[in-house]
Amino acid sequence: MAAPITPLFPDKEARKRMVVATCTAAAGAGAAKTITIPDAYPPMDMNIPSPVLAIMIGQSEATLVIDGNGVFAIGGQMSTTPDSAGEFQILTSRTISIWKLANKTAVVMVCYISSGSGQKT
Amino acid sequence: MSQKVVDKKLKGEKKMVVAPLTNIFFPNEEDRSLMVAAAVSVAAGAGTAVATITIPSAYPPINLNLASPVIAILVLQADATLLASGNEFMTAAQQCDGVVDSAKEFQITGAREIKFYQTPAELQCAIVFYIAEGSGQVT
Q1: Can you give the pTM of this predicted structure?
Q2: ipTM of predicted assembly, 2 dp
Q3: 70-99 in chain A: CB under 8 A from chain B
Q4: Does the residue A59 lie in any domain?
Q5: The total number of structural domains that make up chain A
Q6: pLDDT tens profile B72-129
């Protein structure tokens, strides 16, 4: 298991800046995969320790497999490279590394706190 | 910039399939404090056809005074045996100002109605994240 952080849930003011972004994840089983927040959305607020509230991935290939759909909770945020189910690491204001179980492409939804209304990283 | 000016500007920017809106109108912090997540079901269509999402009256209506009030849409197949594209997500940047005709495109057609391009001919459930006009439920 990677090194987890102690989640500090965003306060009320920060939660007013929540964003729900959608993107895609490449196929790959038992591997860390990087997802990228599209430019259509503002970047994550890197000034708070736990800006990602939840991540959900949905298989986007035919015939659902075990773990084709999955979720990541705020407590799954790591300070090092993820290597187990439910783990993720925030790499930059637009990239997150997630531990992927199913060898299927997936669509991804990320609920996070942004740094504002702009779109600059 | 007034909404009329914004609309006029958008109509002049037809660069892609069905004239998607530019993404420069992402809702600001104040508007995002009014975000709603609505859960709905979507009937199976003909496949690769336009389908309709109706925001239930249990939720406040979409704020049509914003250029891009819909933040994200998630549709999940609710029938057995997942098909390719049975699960799909749409981003704020995939909002179009014409009738949708390609995967992942959607158009806001009313304060409670969104048209999107449904790929599989399957029953789906959906979650729509959007900015509401307020806490009331009057359309």
Answers
A1: 0.85
A2: 0.86
A3: none
A4: yes
A5: 1
A6: 999 999 999 999 999 999 999 899 989 999 999 999 999 999 999 999 999 999 999 9
Look at A59 and B82 and tell me if their CB atoms are within 8 Å: yes
A7-47, pLDDT tens digit by residue? 889 998 899 899 999 999 999 999 999 999 998 899 999 99
Is position A6 within any domain?
Answer: no
* Inside any domain, residue A97: yes
b/e burial code for range B110-139 (CB count within 10 A of at least 16 → b): ebbebbbbbbbebebebbbbbbbbeeeeee
Residues of A in contact with B20 (CB under 8 A): none
Instruction: Point out the residue among A22, A41, A119 whose CB comes nearest to the CB of B90.
Output: A22
Which domain covers residue A75, as residue numbers? 12-113
Does A60 map to a domain?
yes
Tokens, residue B108: 């806001």
Q: Which two tokens stand for residue B122?
A: 């399957």
